[in-house]
Amino acid sequence: MGVSANSLINRPILASIHTEAFRHNLNRVRELAPESKIWSVIKARSYGHGFEAAFKGLESTDGFALLDIQDASWLRGKGWEGRILLLEGLFHQNEVTLALELSCDLVVHCETQVQWLEDYQTKGRKPFNIFLKMNSGMNRLGLNPDAYRVAFHRLHTLGYHLHHMTHFANADQIDQSPTVGEQQECFETAIAGLEAPTSLANSAAIMWHRNTLGDWVRPGIMLYGASPTGQFNDIAHSHLQAVMHLHSEIIDIQELRKGDRVGYGGCYEAPEPMRIGVIACGYADGYPRQASDGTPVWVEGGAANGSGLICPLVGRVSMDMMTIDLRKAPQARIGSRVELWGSQVPVDDVAQKSGTIGYELLCALAPRVPVDIK
User: Fold this and answer.
1) Cα(first)–Cα(last) distance of the chain, in Å?
2) Is residue 264 flagged as an active site residue?
C-alpha cells in the first residue's frame, strides 16, 4: 500500500496562505484608488506566498505585474486572460516573440530595450503595450527626462501603445529626498504634451499620497498585509489583513535554574528559575537568525485563563529550532500551537526585532516549509 506525501509530514511547522485576506486587501486598494486600474505585483513568487495562492486570491485584479516571462507563461497556462506586465521588461532580445505570444505588456527602461523594440517593429508586427519608465530621482531603472522624451517619440512613431511610468523612492518616508513631490514634479514636467495613461503609485503612495495615483496603481506589499515602511504601527488602522500565517508547535520544555544559559553561544542567561519552550522553527525555515531577545511569539492557550498570549524569544535562533520564555504562559505545554507571524504577530514586528523588513521575511520562507492554501 502506498504512503501519501502528506502522511510523511510530521514536523509541525506550517505556512497558511489565506486567499480571503488577498481579496480583502485588493478591495482595500480599490477603496483607496477607485478611479485607477490595478497591477497586482506578484514578483518573487508572490512575495513568498506562491503563485497558486496569489492567482486564486487576486483573480479579480485588472492585471498581474511580475518579473520573469516564465511566470507569465504559468499564468496563461492557468487560464488568465487579463493583462500581464513584465516589470523589468525583456532581459534578452530573443524574448520578444515569446512576450508577444503571451500578450505581455512591457516596461521599457533603457536605450537597449528601445532599440530591441525598434528592430522588432520594423518587421511590421503587432505592437506591444509599453510602460515607458522614467528615472525621476530614484536612480535605479529608467530613462532620464530628456532621453525619455526622445524614446517616447521613437516608440510612438512606430505605433506602440505607450504609457508613462515612474517609481517613488521615498513614498514611505517624510521629507526624505527625493520626495514624492519632487519626483512627481519631475515626471509631470517631462511628460508635458505627451498624451498617454500614467502609472506611478506603489503601496506607500496608494496609502499616503493619493494625489499621485494615475491611471494604473501598482500595489505590492499592502496586498500581502504588511507595511511599506516596515513598521506595523503605520498600517495598524489601515484595515489590511495578513495573508501568510506561519505556525509551529512547542516540541519540548526545559526547566532552567538561575544562571543557566540557552542556545548556541549561551547568549541568554536565565535571571531566575524558569521554563523555556523549544519551537520547531529555525533559520532553515526562513525565520531570521538575527532575531533578538524579545521578538514576539504568540502561544495559543498559554495563559492561565486559557487564552493566547505573546511570549518573548530568548537565545539564538538555530537551524531548526528556537526558544521562548514561558514564565508568563503557565498553561503552555508540549504540543501547544504557536504563531511566528500572521494575525497575532505582525511580520513587521518580527522583522523590526531582526534588523530587517517584513518583505524579506515573507520572501525568504524556505521551500521545506509546507504550505496550506486556504
Assistant:
1) 29
2) yes
Opening angle at CA 348, ends 342 and 349, nearest 5: 90
Neighbouring CB atoms inside 10 A of 189's CB total 10
- Residue 280, φ and ψ in degrees, nearest 5: -80, 80
Q: Could you tell me the three cell numbers for 323?
A: 526558544
The residue from 264, 268, 287, 374 that is catalytic is 264
* Marked catalytic residue, from 37, 43, 56, 328: 43
Residue 126: pLDDT band by 50, 70, 90 thresholds?
Answer: confident
Cell of 216: 494604473
Q: How far apart are CA 370 and CA 360, in angstroms?
A: 19
Residues near 357 by Cβ (< 8 Å), separated by ≥ 6?
Answer: 230, 348, 351
> Which domains, ranges and CATH numbers included, belong to the chain?
19-232 (3.20.20.10), 244-373 (2.40.37.10)
- Determine which helix (DSSP H) or strand (DSSP E) holds 56, and give its type and residue range: helix 51-57
Q: Convert the pLDDT of each residue in 151-191 to its tens digit.
A: 999 999 999 999 999 999 889 988 888 998 999 999 999 99
* pTM for this entry: 0.92
Q: Does residue 359 have an active-site annotation? A: no
294-308 burial: b if 16+ Cβ within 10 Å, else e: ebbbbbbebbeeeeb
Nearest 5°: phi and psi at 65?
-115, 130
Cell of 70: 516564465
Distance, in Å, from the CA atom of 352 to the CA atom of 296, rounded to the nearest integer, reads 11
